[in-house]
Amino acid sequence: MIKSLVYKLGVLGVGLFALTSCNDYLDKLPDDRAELNSKEKITQLLLEAYPSVTNNLIHEMLSDNVDDNGRSYSSPILCEELYRFKDPTEESSDSPYDVWEGFYRSVAVCNQALDAINELGNPSSMIGDVAEAKIVRAYSMFQLANTFCMAWDPTKADEYPGLPYPLIPEQDINTHYERGTLRQLYEAINKDIEEALANINEANARYKQPKYHFNTKAAYAFAARFNLYYMQYDKAVKYASEVLGDNPAAMLRDYEPYRNLGRQDFGNQWIRSDQDCNLILINSYTRSCRYLASSGSNARFNHNQTMASYETYWVEGPWGNGSSKNSIIYANKLYGTDQCVAYPSYDEQFEYSDKVAGIGYAHAVDPVFTGDLTILERAEAYALLGQLNNAVNDINTWLSTHCKDKVEDGTIVAPAPAPLTVASITSFIADSKNGLDYAKRTPDSWRDRSMRKHMHPQGFTVAAGDMENVLQMILHLKRIESQCHGLRFMDLKRYGIEFTHLVKGEDPLVFIAGDLRGAVQLPNTVITAGLPGNARMTKEQIDAYIESTKSEYINPDDDE
Asked: What is the pLDDT of residue 204?
């Protein structure tokens, strides 16, 4: 049974792993094991608890950030299966199998560390290690939940399946696991987070490289995001404020050093540990960078020029539009081809195992929590609490660091936006180029080609008018801030934003509100081992839903 949850939940008696330093790439697991009989060995073990996988590729390929460039281009089988909303059959890097195995391996290492600390009598000098093990376990389970479960919906949390949440090392290969419910899963994640936060601080820390660990700010940023998804908005605001402090702008990225950098230097600067905005950096073995940020390996299904122009970086905003008349940093720092337009925040780092032969390992270094995302998540929580002015204040702080007057030949061609207000956001969103009358769908496209999207919130309500308009702005800023980093898919699931993956020469593939494909299918090996897979809607059910809601999207004045 163990081969099936980390090879089914994995690692029966994880040993001590040798690491050099956090600045080196992830080392390989040696065959020899060491007994965990000292504080130093356990602390060293916790370095290996951090996941070495990422779900970014899965989430991006399932989201509305990608489009079809046509049959004259090719993409890896995994990317095509995900784009077509098919249950992936591959067990390669970045596949559901790889993600399942990697995050559950992280959980298993955390459990081994906690068990070893318990065997030492839970010394007070190791309360920081206990807290770190619990927050990493919670993070890995949160990532598994985001991929393999539906979004949190309190009205369906007892109906939607959760995932096994092991709390002790597996000792018996015949251990039986239950998925439980989504409510039980979120309660377990929340318990680990709350217990960890009580003892995570730099005074209790035994690590030497804070940015490669859940330091205090990173832990609170994680707690803020989790509680935002968990619909505990007061706590989301509270924890985000712990990160942002009294001067939130100081925790955001300072773009001045970036403006004159080329792609490679820009990407290297982005992941520096001395950037205050980078709260934690996680290394992973992944090919997702080459698939998401380059057309060389994934030319057919990608974030193309059409997406950039009409939905993401170049879409009209208070900061301008296009590339030439736009004051936002992204607009003038895009690279790639018509088939793949990328912002250099997710470039591959390659570790050579044999430089002469040109072989090695592809890595990503991902700042999974940043000040820039945390302030937008706090803005979202404020908006959902009805505190719209506070939400707009956070939007303005974010814009103040991301926008700068664009000057050509001594003339300002795109001024940075004046501070926004609730009224000005509503006016902008209601404009004909951004309103739902413009973002209408037709049976042929089923895409909202604008900033604004149709919302069908799952388990919560969004008041029409100012609240919705402010949230539309926030979700758009989150989208462009996190493109390539996998977060957009969770917002689509949470807000029930319906979208289409267009396929050249075929019927469009529609993702509907509450779509059960939002919970990625468990790996075949896990299902074969006895864990129930995720349910699926039939094509007939999806088609019936589309037909019943067609009037919501098609302008009655249009010819069908």
From this structure: 73
Q: Which backbone phi and psi does 540 adopt, to 5 degrees? A: -65, -40
Write the CA distances from 424 to 325, 386, 399, 415, 466, integer angstroms.
Answer: 20, 17, 14, 16, 10
User: Which residues are CB-contacts of 466 (< 8 A; sequence separation ≥ 6)?
Assistant: 388, 422, 425, 426
What does the pLDDT look like over 69-103, one tens digit per residue?
A: 999 999 999 999 999 999 998 899 999 999 999 99
The pairing of strands 499-501 and 509-511 is: antiparallel
Weakly modelled stretches of the chain, pLDDT under 70? 1-34, 432-447, 552-560
Yes or no: say if 43 and 68 are a contact pair by the CB < 8 Å rule: no
pTM comes to: 0.92
DSSP element (H, E) containing 354: strand 349-354
Q: Please answer whether residues 89 and 81 qualify as being in contact, where contact means their C-beta atoms are separated by less than 8 angstroms.
A: yes
Residue 382: how many other CB atoms lie within 10 Å: 24
DSSP 322-353: TTTEE-BGGGGS-EE-SS-EE-TTS--EEEEE
Q: In what order do the strands lie in the sheet with 278-285?
A: 278-285, 359-370, 349-354
So what's the pLDDT on residue 173? 76
* End-to-end C-alpha distance for the chain, whole angstroms: 54
Half-sphere exposure of residue 160: CA atoms within 13 angstroms, side-chain side: 27
DSSP assignment string, 468-493: HHHHHHHHHHHHHHHTTTT-HHHHHH
Angstrom distances, CA of residue 521 to CA of 158, 375, 386, 458, 533: 19, 32, 36, 20, 6
Q: Are strands 320-321 and 301-302 parallel, antiparallel or unpaired?
A: unpaired
The dihedral over CA atoms of 217, 221, 224, 228, expressed in degrees to the nearest 10, equals: 170
Q: Name residues whose C-beta falls within 8 Å of residue 147's C-beta, 6 or more positions apart in sequence.
A: 55, 58, 59, 96, 99, 520
